[in-house]
Amino acid sequence: MLGECAEAKGNHLMERGGYLIAPHTKSATHPFRNGILHEKVRLVNDKLASEIQAKIDEGDTFLSEDRFALAVKCYEQAAALLPEPRNAHAISLQVYLALGEGYFFSGYYDQALVAFQQAMKTSGGIENPLTHLRMGQSYFEIGELDSAADSLTRSYALDGRTIFDGEDEKYLSFLASRIDL
């Protein structure tokens, strides 16, 4: 059951900072996409987890091909498969980070922020530097510079300069104008 976004084939990955990522700094295989599990995390059954992961994988393929609308559609389908409460499952962080990145790379920064805020509510979301990085970038793009500085600072504090490797230099330059790096 692959759905409407199953036509994607091929995965064009490159190495960045020791991680495999999709081109244009899309972080489909970035280790921070998977999060950290805590004791109160709920696990979806294996069949449902496989369906959700398949949607994420399809979306990641589209994202790596710059087919953002199709990637977002897959990620939205993955999110729709999450049982309530949607942010309480082991795979929830991965789903909401993927959805946020789909919106971010599509230029829908307000929608990206909603997804990243949902990611923050999942197990491992608060301590995930990628969540903070993408939130900061989204805030930056919509002109909310104080919020951008806050999120980018948190990302930097969690992972140092490494999290900015391969990203547009404007984000690190902006952060350097706000804090001592």
UniProtKB/TrEMBL annotation:
<keyword id="KW-0802">TPR repeat</keyword>
<dbReference type="InterPro" id="IPR019734">
    <property type="entry name" value="TPR_rpt"/>
</dbReference>
<feature type="repeat" description="TPR">
    <location>
        <begin position="129"/>
        <end position="162"/>
    </location>
</feature>
<protein>
    <submittedName>
        <fullName>Uncharacterized protein</fullName>
    </submittedName>
</protein>
<dbReference type="InterPro" id="IPR011990">
    <property type="entry name" value="TPR-like_helical_dom_sf"/>
</dbReference>
<feature type="repeat" description="TPR">
    <location>
        <begin position="93"/>
        <end position="126"/>
    </location>
</feature>
